[in-house]
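User: Teach me something about this protein's shape.
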Amino acid sequence: MLIAQRMDTTDSDTLDRDDMVRLAGGENAALDRLMDRHAGSVLRFLTRTVGNAADAQDLAQETFARVHRYRQRYRPSARFSPWLFTIAANLARNHFRWKSRHPSLSLDLEVGSTGQSLGETLPADGQNPQQATAATEHTAAVQQAIDRLPSRLREALVLCTWEGLSVDEAAAVLGTSSKSIESLLYRARRLLRQQLTAWL
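Assistant: First, the predicted structure itself:
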């Protein structure tokens, strides 16, 4: 199973590199293929990072616009996904800086937002209403705890835990060292455990 997973990752990496070379050569359809493979993971990362589904959607679209704009800067010798997440993370940081400079805008719309997709809020097959309610409350509690993490901790956690990047790749995305990422992950998990003691 692990071998098959590695082959799938390798195949995806090869497809990504090929499509980026084609995109740089003027084949715009290559961007559609890249979006088909990565739009979901970029949107998940941004939703968990910025805590607002509408903002995350806008930032995800801008991420792929920048992939197209900066297509000549991509080095085919490097994996595509860390490069892609670097663009998304930079956009998320710019988003937070913009929000901090515009305090007159109401942030109340984001309070209690879990960033869940419809599929995540639906009860699993076989769940009774009480189980479904408990599962939804648990998911909301986890998302709110993640939303309360400092942005640096949240970014490291989302990249390594949900998006499957290695510590080294996350370090490249966030412009820091692998040791720093390990420290961020440790602190993030410790804070989450403290906030979610009622659910453990």
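Now, about its shape. Confidence is low (pLDDT under 50) at residues 1-7, 102-125. Residues 2-24 form the longest helix (23 residues). If you'd like, I can walk through any region in more detail.
User: That's plenty for now, thanks!
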